[in-house]
6-phospho-beta-glucosidase (Lacrimispora algidixylanolytica), 474 residues
Amino acid sequence: MIKKDFLWGGAMAANQCEGAYLEDGKGMSPMDILPSVQHGRKEAMYHPEIAMNTNYGYYPSHQSIDFYHRYKEDLALLAEMGFKAFRTSISWARIFPSGDDEIPNEAGLLFYDNLFDECQKYHMEPVVTICHFDTPLSLTKRYGGWSDRRLIDLYLNYCKVLFQRYGKKVKYWITFNEINMITHIPFFGGGMVVKDEEHMDQIVYQAAHHQLVASALATKMAKSINPEIQMGCMLAAGSFYPYSCNPVDVWAAVEKNQEVYLFIDVQVKGKYPSYAKKIWSEKKITLHMEEGDEAILSQYPVDYIAFSYYSSRLTGVSPEIKGNVADGNAITTLRNPHLDITPWGRQIDPLGLRITMNDLYDRYEKPLFVVENGLGVEDIIEEDGSIVDDYRIEYMKKHIDTMIEAMNDGVECLGYLSWGCIDLVSAGTGEMEKRYGFIYVDRDNEGNGTLERKKKKSFYWYKDFIKSMDETKE
């Protein structure tokens, strides 16, 4: 059942929409050194030392969709749709250009003051991610990113400024975007350069521990500044299915799901799960904890679980199926023969959202928050100027329907935020043509275009849908 205060809306991220990459004192962020996929983005993501020493000429994030200068226009469009909530992130390097500066950058702080004030003007609840694949690049170069425990204090110094400045304006916070992605893309998740000859698992799981301690201490800090603040964790979700009913496939799915849930277990339950020791042993990890870490983790769990959902995942052990893989948002998944697939390799599984939500709620019994869901495809402008994205409307209808079914199953859910509500630069590919939005942005993969905003057919559909939900609330 949809409650009166359910948060319908959409989501974006600073590093994919703001642009203005060095304006008003901002420092460099990881996305700022990455080219588009046509010019080597995949290699740069997994070997950022190459990106740091290469001039690619064109960088998608440097201007992006220029949200930094157009946020008033953009928020007015979202308000026209009836958004109750808008998820964005704060660029750490816009507040502390080097990450460890003694004094925050006032121009950066003022931008977010104005952004949140504009949200309040439209009665739109900001949902703010503190670190969305956005550890300042200077911290990568000087400390090695989150592999260095000193980043805990630097992050907390950043959080203190945010909570003191915006603690009355922002109720919902997320400490780290998709925290489990640190084990798959350490440069995004932890600002780390992990060389091929290094023990990657040791480095990323130790870095994740530092983030978990930082998340718990940030929760403690937020509550001390404003007890009304709601602190959330976030994972890249999508339950793993077994390829067959063969028990070895079923067990393979159990193990894969344990790896996905490991860090959320800590953030919600306040301790590492019993199976963590087996994972560390199999991966030859020796996790270093300082005195007091376990107490910190146990005392300051999160209030809710935010998650992204684009597709379910599939795993199995039979040799003949191992090569049949699909894009799983950097998480390897087998191709599911029962699902349709997008040109970018995402499998479409609306029922999987209901399954995932039930899995999460049964496991944690904490409110869930769908903060990313959407369809990234190429949109065509018709001769009359319209954009008829019926495929996106169908995708969203089916996923929202299954989300509501999950809520009817007894799952508590705070809201639904579609990803990329305005077209933005893809984090994975750096492309603009992989579009998610209700609002088209005139910009191509090479940075050409006027940046003009144009409403798609889905804009009007979502507007009418939210209005219909308002009319049928409890």
